[in-house]
Predict the 3D structure of the following.
Amino acid sequence: MALVKNNAMIDDPFVDVTGQETIPADGPVIVDLHQWQSHREQLTQRTDPVGVRLRSDQPPELIAGDLESLALVALEFPVFRDGRAYSYARLLRGQYRFDGEIRAVGDVLLEQLHFMERTGFDAFELQSDDPLGDLQVASADFDVWYQPAADGRLSAMQLRHQSD
Amino acid sequence: MYRYDEFDHKLVAERARQFRRQVKRRLSGELTEDQFKPLRLMNGLYMQLHAYMLRVNVPYGSLSSRQLRKFAHIARTYDRDFGHFTTRQNIQFNWIKLEEVPDILEELAEVEVTAIQSSGNCVRNITSDHYAGRARDELADPRVYCELLRQYTILNPEFSYLPRKFKIALTGSPRDRAAVALHDIGLRMHRNEAGEIGFEVLVGGGQGRTPFIAHTIREWLAPEHLLSYVESILRVYNMYGRRDNMHKARIKIIVNQMGIDRYRELVEADWEQIRDSVLKVPQAEVDRINAYFAPPEYECLADIPDELNDVRARIPEFDQWMAANVAEHRIPGYSIVNLSLKAPGMPPGDMTADTMDAVADLADRYSLDEIRVNHRQNLSFVDVRQRDLFTLWKELKLHDLATPNIQSVSDIICCPGLDYCNLANSRSIPVAQDLSRHFVDVDHLALVGDFTINISGCMNACGHHHVGNVGILGVNKRGKEFFQLTLGGSSDENAALGDRLGRALPQDEVPAAVETIVDTYLAMRLDGERFLDTYRRVGIEPFKQAVYSPVQTRAVA
Amino acid sequence: MQMIIANRLIDGRVVFLDDSGGWVNEIADGSLLVSQQDAAEQLNAAQRAVEENEVVDPYLIDVAADGGRRRPVLVRERIRAFGPSVGLVPQGLGGN
């Protein structure tokens, strides 16, 4: 799967082992919530980074206490219309102060990329022949935003009153 | 009126350009219909029975004459010479071509109008009291907060794929003309003993197939916290609202399933984290926006009751119009004038391009260039000098906009129904036409007084039938259209859902049934009682008896 | 008898599938389908037109011949074929 991060295509260092019986002994892995909860102790001992993949009905509250041990949280879009992960990403960046990778996985498409980026996602598994091109198209759409989000961009309101 | 600054202009232009690309990708097949549908809906574009329908926002009902002329131009250039004003301060165009929509959006942007989020599972057009800033009974002007919310909700990255649509309404008057209790979020402004304003926040109201009156989630919210509190309500809804069944996906369902107390706990817990964040509204922004809503330079005039009474005594028709269509203004010497789009036989809310131009001209001459659109599908001029009332009345008559029937039996709310709408299962407009032709005696309308009739062509309730004093719901039984009546609904500050009267009636029996209801009310009412008061006092039985009594009942299929 | 109705993607107009596999605006010019097999075949053709981004939401409607004029059986489809049953300008009341 093509992975875009920091405006570049990258080789995914992580192995997604969600749903598998056994977890490899080393190397960066992404596990599902069940695996994480069942093997939390072993997983936190690893030297290689660990990520957790959450389904759209699994709010980050479920791993809130574990975030310090995690390098990555992957949030799933089962279908692009399911917008729960936007709030999960905002909570991760805002309330939970998570500064690891937040990866968008599942039905990840060009026309939603901008919203994902704004809510705190920084890596994208895109369903596309030209993921980098898609990201560039999506980022070129806007340079005015009406509300603050997780990306640090200043809202129109903030810009209007910067000098106040 | 609010005017766009450089940021507003830029964003709207960028949005139109983005949609041009999305249309191009759809036409080339890069986007499937399934992928494109939410994108087009969030730009106001539906597929209806005959073609694409474009729904355009009139934020909180405020429209300039220049904008109305642009609507006339859109109707002529891209559609069939008319538009339809809805119950949510929108206008709809019925025969739009997908390939022309990007051009239309650019044309609308020139006059600071958009179709952004007029549909889709996102926060819709912010609506409000059409008398905002002008009503004599107003506590505070809600428009500055409407505009703050408009900006906050437009292209909000977190809340553009909610479980279902989301509607917010505000009122600054104790008399609720914006139906706030029937909204996903309703905001009622109050003043405390110190004279400060605050919001009572309501949540979980709505109509549709499962109607609910909203619950109060917070009695008092300081205005600086408006955006953060709305964000928390939306966040909890986005995370916990049901996504397994679109008929159970509105916030009203989750609020009523988990209970308002639990919903409040979740909201307040989230809000504690963000209430003092950058979402706190700076006073400088309130001041900036408020400057646009500063009162116009009114002339120093006095009320002229004697002069008006003199004309009213001489011309009964003018008197009837004054009594029904003209409301009090907060400034002496001025009045608010309602333009009825409900002349006998007219499809409620429809207006031709020529009439739009005429209304724009009248607004320039008689009402400081501004027009208001209200949720009962009529228009208002909110700054008319009393000394111009008689001349304006004569002008409005020429355009069939002076039917003296505001808030009366023939001032009917009606959805487009099966004549246009993909969801409808019965034709609502012909019922409205029948009724408005049936109740043409203006003296009788005046005698009956406040009496709202709301008609929906299906259970989605776009015609607000649940909250009509008489509600009429079209139902389809084995391919035939029937109409189910409800009584006692109301969308005001004492909002109530109507009660079912009895079995559904065929279309040709509806006018007689409504007449029977009216007559029953007239026979039973005490001094000064509105229909709703009488109904609440006597209950549904006398009406049921009268409508379905064996003597009057004809065989029903 | 049946016909296939749809909306054309580019302008949204109501269209009917005709004998040559094209899409026409008038119900009179569309293809009348008598057998179940014809209907199934034409529906397949319509589905291909969806994939080719020509039309959206095609489906079969029942049609009766009414004095030589084709008339959809359901009110909804008659409204789609012939336009709204109500005009903006009320009849007999003038208007502009």
The helical segments of chain A are 33-38, 40-45, 84-93, 110-119, 131-139, 156-160. The mean pLDDT of chain A is 96. The first strand of chain A starts at residue 3 and ends at 5. Chain A has six helices and eight strands.
